[in-house]
From TrEMBL:
Keywords: Cytoplasm, Histidine metabolism, Hydrolase, Iron, Metal-binding, Zinc. 4-imidazolone-5-propanoate binds at residues 93, 156, 189, 257, 333. Its cofactor is Zn(2+); Fe(3+). The keyword Zinc applies. InterPro entries: Amidohydro-rel, HutI, Metal-dep_hydrolase_composite, Metal_Hydrolase. The gene is hutI. It is found in: Cytoplasm. Coiled coil: none annotated. Belongs to the metallo-dependent hydrolases superfamily. HutI family. This is Imidazolonepropionase. One of its GO terms (molecular function) is iron ion binding. One of its GO terms (biological process) is L-histidine catabolic process to glutamate and formate.
């Protein structure tokens, strides 16, 4: 394979010296910007990042053997990382969108048997091939928006067989599709109707039956739960997350999405890798997350689509919480693959700066799925996941909002979008 030489970008956002830890506070607002920047990619790896002059000097006559990409007037960043998606599912729920626009709430629809239940029925009925095909298409769309790594949750099976099927599909997609996929078990996404009268019995089933089998299969790395009034209580969520920990599954949590419910506090207490949503997180919960270094994965697209107030991203960063951004891609509360739009909303709805949102969708997003050392940064020696945006600087990426500026995507050293 010929080397790829990206040349003369008006800005390259290069890796910073120490990216072993998530970025917090002022560090979230710092980017390593190289003007007239170039990147040398060889054998799938980023060999060198610097000014064009530096790289030409270093590679000398080898420049002639490379495939040169002229990036004049463009911005080069790491491949974007989406740390929270419900990628593998069947069907759509535009009927519920219409119901919400006519006054019904998300929870009312769910409690009447729609919402997550509706997608569970569709997912249970789908064949493995159908799930694979639908999800493959979504991954293509992610890639077209510059996303090169996604986390994918189960959670539309609510029985072991279908939960495992979702994880299996995610695992096959990881092998077959250029986008890298990190898998999360979410057996506790909602209480299935057959357990409505005895939710603890379902929690027991997740703990005693599903978690051990999922852990044994090696199909998941994280364990997530929807901690919300009317879904799983903080006590039940804690039991589920602790049980996962005992089997080596790292805890994640859908926390304080609709109502304040002490989800952020729980995330800190169990040492979760991340607490996600946090629209209604308490100040105390946020303080505890900062103290414990729990990543806040914020999903402003979900707030936007549910017509709710966004999480207080600005306040969380100022309080010392490391913040990441994600689409939450799912058929009910956020049917989008546009992480660039989510970054726009990070600025416009949560008061984050253009530099902060870029770090939140790259470096910190990678940390939110324990990939901080392999993804989310244009650092020498890393796998070459690189995006060229058709915009001259990182501020315009946010300023010209609602536009997909993705021009070229390189995944593991191969041009996959052009
Ligand atoms: O992150 N809140 C729980 N889970 C998803 C929505 C899933 C769905 O509606 O299908 C979320 O918002
Ligand atoms: Fe979610």
């Amino acid at each position: 394979m010929k080397p790829i030489f990206i040349r003369h970008a008006s800005q390259v956002i290069a890796g910073q010296k120490d990216q072993g830890d998530p970025l917090t506070q002022e560090a979230m607002n710092v980017l390593n910007v190289i003007e007239d920047g170039s990147v040398w990619i060889e054998e799938g790896v980023i060999k060198r990042v610097g000014t064009d002059t530096q790289l030409v000097e270093e590679f000398g006559s080898r420049v002639e053997e490379a495939d040169v990409i002229d990036a004049r007037g463009k911005l080069v960043t790491p491949g974007l990382v989406d740390p929270h998606t419900h990628l593998v599912h069947a069907g759509t729920r535009e009927n519920e969108f219409d119901m919400r626009l006519n006054g019904k709430t998300y929870m009312e629809i769910m409690n009447a048997g729609g919402g997550i239940h509706a997608t569970t029925r569709a997912t249970r009925e789908a064949t493995e091939e159908e799930l694979y095909k639908e999800s493959y298409e979504r991954l293509n769309q992610f890639l077209l928006h510059g996303v090169t790594t996604v986390e994918a949750k189960s959670g539309y099976g609510m029985n072991l067989e279908v939960e495992m099927r979702q994880l299996q599909v995610a695992s096959e997609l990881h092998k077959d599709h250029p986008v890298d996929i990190v898998r999360t078990f979410m057996g506790a996404h909602v209480v299935p109707p057959e357990y409505k009268e005895d939710t603890d019995a379902f929690v027991d089933l997740v703990i005693d039956h599903m978690i051990p089998k999922v852990a044994e299969s090696g199909l998941a790395e994280f364990n997530d739960v929807f901690c919300e009034r009317g879904v799983f209580t903080p006590e039940q969520s804690k039991r589920i997350l602790e049980a996962g920990k005992a089997y080596g599954l790292h805890p994640k949590i859908h926390a304080d999405e609709i109502e304040p419910y002490k989800g952020a506090e729980l995330a800190a207490e169990v040492g979760a890798i991340s607490a996600d949503h946090l629209l209604r997180a308490s100040d105390e919960g946020v303080r505890m997350m900062a103290e414990r270094g729990v990543m806040g994965v914020l999903l402003p697209g979900t707030a936007f689509f549910l017509m709710a107030d966004s999480a207080n991203g600005r306040g969380m960063i100022d309080a010392g919480v490391p913040v990441a951004l994600s689409t939450d891609c799912n058929p009910g509360s956020s049917p989008t693959v546009s992480l660039p739009l989510i970054m726009n909303l990070g600025c416009l709805k949560m008061g984050m700066t253009p530099a902060e949102v870029l770090n939140a969708a790259t470096v910190n997003a990678a940390h939110a799925i324990r990939r901080g050392n392999v993804a989310g940064s244009l650092s020498e020696g890393r796998k070459a996941d690189v995006v060229i945006h058709n915009t001259p600087n990182f501020m315009q990426l946010q300023y010209r909002y609602g536009v997909n500026h993705t021009d070229t995507v390189i995944k593991a050293g191969k041009v996959v979008v052009k």
